[in-house]
Amino acid sequence: MKLLLLGAGGHAKAVIEVARARGIAIAGLVAQVPVGTRVMGVPVIGADGDLARLRAEGIEAAFVAVGDNAVRERLARDLRALGFALPAIVHPSAIISSSAAIGDGAVVMPLAFVGAETRIGDVAILNSAAIVEHDGRIAPAAHVAPGAVLAGEVVVGERTLVGVGAVVRPGVRIGADAVIGAGAAVVADVAAGARVAGTPARPLPLRAAPSPLRDR
């Protein structure tokens, strides 16, 4: 089965490498760049408006390789509505507990660790060398960035970003749409929509959201 990838930015490059490491054939990219553009040797074969045609032509599986959490969630919903399967992709160097579960359309990057009875939600990203220990719950469309360490029983809400190198103490609950800054030490629960940073992590002022097309 060939896999259609949505996206042509930095995250798409990382997903291409994970797919190749798993021996997955890539049918092409769908992105907001000119058809024929090549990313790491993979051609762009259409834009979002071509998804129904590509499905009708026989491409059965797709993967959303877009870094923006909300956009990734929306595109995955569109793909499901068109009848695409959304397989998870796990790098061969990742360590996944036999009792853990990886959701549809999720990606687990090189050297990541998923502990006992942990659940990684649909279209979530567990990035390079990230650790989610036992009984963790990573909700759909969340992103645990490179080198982050989540101790046991940590819960991360939908579309939340846990930044590079952040550390979260056992049992902490992080709400939906939150942002945990790079290198933060999270020792208490984080409310939905909050932005926290520092050691220990403290709330930061809200700021305007970045463009959702930055990684497409």
Textual characterization of the structure:
There is one protein chain. This protein has 216 residues and is an alpha/beta fold. The protein has two domains: 3-81, Rossmann fold (3-Layer(aba) Sandwich), CATH 3.40.50; 88-206, UDP N-Acetylglucosamine Acyltransferase, domain 1 (3 Solenoid). Helix content is 14%, strand content 27%. The chain has helices at 10-21, 51-56, 69-81, and strands spanning 3-6, 26-30, 38-39, 42-46, 61-64, 89-90, 95-96, 101-102, 107-108, 113-114, 119-120, 125-126, 131-132, 137-138, 143-144, 149-150, 155-156, 161-162, 167-168, 173-174, 179-180, 185-186, 195-197, 202-203. The strands form four sheets. An eight-stranded mixed β-sheet has the order 6-9-12-15-18-21-23-24, with helices on one face. The radius of gyration is 17 Å and the shape is globular.
Distance between the termini: 24 Å
Please tell me the overall pLDDT. Answer: 94
Range of helix content: 10-25%
The main sheet orders its strands as 6-9-12-15-18-21-23-24
Q: Kindly identify the CATH topology of the largest domain.
A: UDP N-Acetylglucosamine Acyltransferase, domain 1
Biggest sheet, in brief?
Answer: 8 strands, mixed
Global structural class? alpha/beta
Strand content range: 25-35%
Oligomer: single chain
For the record, the count of structural domains works out to 2
* Number of DSSP helical runs: 3
Low-confidence stretches: 209-214
Let me know the number of strands. Answer: 24
What string, H for helix and E for strand, traces the elements in order? EHEEEHEHEEEEEEEEEEEEEEEEEEE
Give the class-level CATH name of the largest domain: Mainly Beta
How many whole angstroms does the radius of gyration measure? 17 Å
- Globally, the shape reads globular
